[in-house]
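>> received
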Amino acid sequence: MAVNVETLEKLERKITLSVPLSAIQAEVDARLKNVARTVKMDGFRPGKVPMSVVAQRHGYAVQYEVLNDKVGEAFAAAVTEADLRVAGQPKITEKEGAAEGEALFEAVFEVMPEVKIGDLTAAEVEKLSTSVDDAAIDKTVDILRKQRRTFVERAANEAAVDGDRVTVDFEGKIDGETFSGGKAEDFQFLVGEGQMLKEFEDATRGMKAGESKTFPLAFPADYHGEDVAGKTADFLVTVKKVEAAILPEVNAEFVKTLGVDGGSVEALREDIKKNLEREVKFRVQGRNKQAVMDALVSVAELDLPKASVQAEVGRLLEGARAELEQRGIKDAAKAEIPEDIFLPQAERRVRLGLVVAELVKTNELHATPEQIKAHVEELASSYEKPEDVVRWYFGDRNRLAEVEAVVIENNVTEFVLAKAKVTDKAVSFDELMGQA
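>> returned
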C-alpha cells in the first residue's frame, strides 16, 4: 500500500501508521510465554506460574514494549517504501479514528535535505605554503639546548637578566592583607620566559642577590585565581640568588644525549628538519582544509534539519561539561550553560557535514585502504617504535574511523583545490607555528 507523506514545512514530514491489534496481541502473548518460563514468584516453582498471574504482573510492561517495537517497525517500513532518509528521531503520537482491529499513529519527522553544491570553479581559496629554513632549525636547536641547560651562580654584583634563574622570597598584599597563594620562600623562576606575570618579571629583572623591592601588580580580570582576579596587589620581593644559564655546546656529545642516529650535528639538523617538515605539512593541510571548507559552505545551498542541529548542540554541550570537569569545576555536570551559545557552531558543523558527504558520494572521494595505511604510517613515523603505533591504530575500529575521516577531508580538500580559484600565499615558519 502506498504511503501518504504530508509535507508540513521545509524538511518536516508527517505520515500515518496503521498497526493491526491482532499482531500486537500475538506478540504480547508470545513474549509473556517466554517470561513465564523463567519468571520467579513466591509460592510457585520456576516455569509453573499461571499465565494470568504473569500477565497481571508483567502484561503492561510487555504490551508497552511490543507497541513501541511494532510502531517502530511500521515507521521503518513506511519510510523505506516512500524512499525517505530520516533525520533524527520521529515524534510519534496515537491518532483517533482508527478502524476496528487496528491502532493509528502519527509520525512527525524531518528528512535529510537536498544538497546543492554550486560551481566550485567560482570558489576562491587562499592556499598556504611554508618551507623549513635554517632559521627554523636553529630555533629548534636552541630549544633543545635550553631543555638541557645548567645554571651557575652569578657574582654578588651581577644583576638578573633574561634567561637567568632567580630564587626569591615574596609576599603580596591586597588592602594590607596577605592573600592565599601570595606568599612564598625560596621560589625559583626563569626571568623573561613568561613563568610569572609581566609586572613581576619586570620588577625582578635587574635586581641583585640580597636586594628587595616593593611594586604594584595588577592581576588580569581573567586570572585563574578568582579571589585576586581584576585586583591590584602590593608585592615585596627579595632576591636570594641569581644564576646564569649555561647552554651546552652543539657538538657530537650533545647530539649523543638526544639519541639521534649518526651522532653528528649534521644528522641532528637533518632529523630536526624532517620532523619540522612533517609538522609543517600537517599544519598547512589543516589551514588549507579550513579555507576549502569555508569555500564549500559559501557555494552550497541546503536546509538544515533541526533535529541534527539539536543533536550537535547536545554533543557540544556534553563536551563543554566534560572540559569543565577536567578543569576541576565542582558540579560541572549541573553547570548552567546556555545552549544558544553552541547554535552557530552546531549549524556550521551540520551544514559542513552534509555538504562534504554529498561531495564525497558524488565524486567517489572515499578513503581507500591504501590511503588509510599510508596516513597511519606517516603519523607513526615520528615515534621511536613506529610499528607499535601502527598496530595501536589498526587494533581499534574507532581510531581507524578517525583516520578515515581525516583522509576523506584531505581528499575533499585536494578535489576542491583542483577546481577552485586558488591564490597561493607563502607564510613564514614562525607565522604558521603561531610564533610571529
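>> The longest helix spans residues 265-299.
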